[in-house]
Amino acid sequence: MNPPEPSRHGPAHNPRRGGRGGSRPGPTPPQRQSGRRGPARAEPPTDAPVDPARLAARDVLRAVRDRSAYANLMLPKLLRDRRITGRAAAFATELAYGACRAQGLLDEIIAAAAGRPANEIDGTILDILRLAAYQLLRTRVAPHAAVSTAVAMARTEGGERITGFVNAVLRRVSEKTEEQWIAQLAPTDPIGRAAFTHAHPRWIGQAFADALGAGAAEIDEALAADDARPTIHLVARPGEITGEELALVTGGTEGNYSPYAVHLESGDPGELDPVRDGLASVQDEGSQLVALAALRAPVSGEDGGRWLDLCAGPGGKAVLMGAIAAIDGARLDAVEISTHRAELVRTSVKGLPVAVHEADGRESGLEPGYDRVLVDAPCTGLGALRRRPEARWRKQSSDVAGLARLQRELLDAAIDLVRPGGIVVYSTCSPHVAETIGVVSHAIRKRGGEAVPAGEVLNEVPRAAAGPAGEFVQLWPHRHGTDAMFIAVLRKPE
Ligand SMILES: C[S@@+](CC[C@H](N)C(=O)[O-])C[C@H]1O[C@@H](n2cnc3c(N)ncnc32)[C@H](O)[C@@H]1O
Questions:
Q1: Residue 406 DSSP code
Q2: What is the structure's pLDDT at 42?
Q3: 168-192: per-residue pLDDT in tens?
Q4: Which candidate, 218, 370, 252, 379, places its Cα nearest to that of 303?
């Protein structure tokens, strides 16, 4: 079997794709490509055995489709169970995550090549076609290897009757580059086109464009960054290790904004000593900035050290706030509605001055008078799609209204719980304006108070102003290399 071949998708940028920039289609050498290439014409399939990496990727696609599994939970377990390591593990990861991210785009191309909608193709065969189409269009894998392994998998699934179909569809897919397929199939309006090109549902492209507002011309860049494999972000635990030390120990690079952030290109963070020893954990740098904003924003009068995290599970921000509370002599209450997630918070805050309460944040029963409250609200998660490969194809625009209602209620409860002159930070890992500016503007209209310019609290972060007067912060993968976190800082009227 051919050894796994690296993707053209690099880690830190959107490295797409051979053929962009006007390379002319042409005959393709059968072996590994470097840089641009023309259409990846497939050789006749041979009866190759299928390697463990492709089988693992196929099984992930199947579990995602069949059982609504999460690819980023399923794959690491499967690799461990099957003892797939090294290059093979990296190849399986690239294929599984890449094909999940690109699913909608791949389905349009497969449908065009098959002459029928993707949802009319048997699911197990569609998984195989997606996997092979991904290899043909977005990696340097030799086309004959992509096709022959797909045909071999199809033979196991459906016998000889299906191999001809799979072979014919993939041959048609391989006759064009990704760019040529996009030119043929993409809608012509700018947002529809950008969404199609960067493999996002249209409504998400529209939500990004709405949130970019005056910056909507960046839509291509924004969706491209959201479609690229993200780097791993670690957070150094304050009081235990500095960001600089963590970067040295792990070979990573220090973050751009958070003093605790370290970025790694790849690898399994669970294998790192500082992570094993509880000195560091995985947390997007944008999430670190949320916790920092909650602790840095100036309260009126003395900070009495009574802090609250109203939506704490699984506990990333509670750990960072709790570690700083330990240094500052403060105490944090952490509320979480889900039993399982409250337990995760309990485990991660052990040894810190944090009390975990399993409760509905809208009626927590906690004594009002907090100096600082963080509402890191449940949301659509549209700002963290790059870290959840299949998520963009599962979410529905109809989820937004119900979440916005819950977000307004949680923010209202937070304002009840904070003392006059105290600070409420409202954040979402979604840039959708109905979940961000819409919720905060509603609270200010209803409850009064002022928005403290979040950009002043996080003055090290450039080009992040959002909202009617630029009073909120909206982070973006393409501008900041973080998830698309929204942050508003409110001070309760005295
Ligand atoms: C965006 S996550 C919070 C992430 C967390 N702050 C962290 O950094 O790890 C939102 C959390 O709110 C919880 N949640 C949902 N509805 C809630 C409610 N009514 N009261 C309290 N927590 C709620 C969800 O279970 C979820 O764990």
A1: H
A2: 58
A3: 999 999 999 999 999 999 999 999 9
A4: 370
Distance of CA 355 to the CA centre of its chain: 29
- Other C-beta atoms closer than 10 Å to the C-beta of 453 total 18
CATH 3.40.50.1950 fits 52-182, yes or no: no
Q: With bands split at pLDDT 50, 70 and 90, how would you rate the model's confidence at 158?
A: confident
Rounded to whole angstroms, the Cα distance separating 372 from 357 reads: 17
Which of 7, 73, 90 minimizes the C-alpha distance to 387?
73
Rg (CA), the chain: 24
Strand, coil or helix: 12: coil
Token output for 388 = 């959840």
Which residue among 429, 440, 464, 484 is the active-site one? 429
**Nearest-angstrom CA–CA distance, 256 and 94:** 26
Angle of helix 178-185 versus helix 190-197 axis, rounded to 10 = 150
Nearest alpha carbon, ligand 1 atom 25 = 338
Q: Nearest-CA neighbor of 354 among 313, 299, 293? A: 313
365: left (phi over 0), alpha (psi -120 to 50) or beta: left
Q: Structural domain boundaries of the chain?
A: 52-182, 187-227, 229-282, 284-491
Query: Is residue 17 within 8 Å of residue 182, measured between CB atoms?
Result: no
Task: Determine whether the shortest distance from the Cβ of 317 to ligand 1 is under 6 A.
Answer: yes
* Known active-site residue 100: no
Atom of ligand 1 nearest to the CA of 429: 1
Contacts of 381 (CB under 8 A, 6+ apart): 388, 391, 395, 429, 430
Pick the CATH number of 284-491 from 3.40.50.1820, 3.40.50.150, 3.40.50.620, 3.10.580.10: 3.40.50.150
Alpha-carbon span 62 to 466, nearest angstrom = 40
Assigned token pair, 389:
């490969």
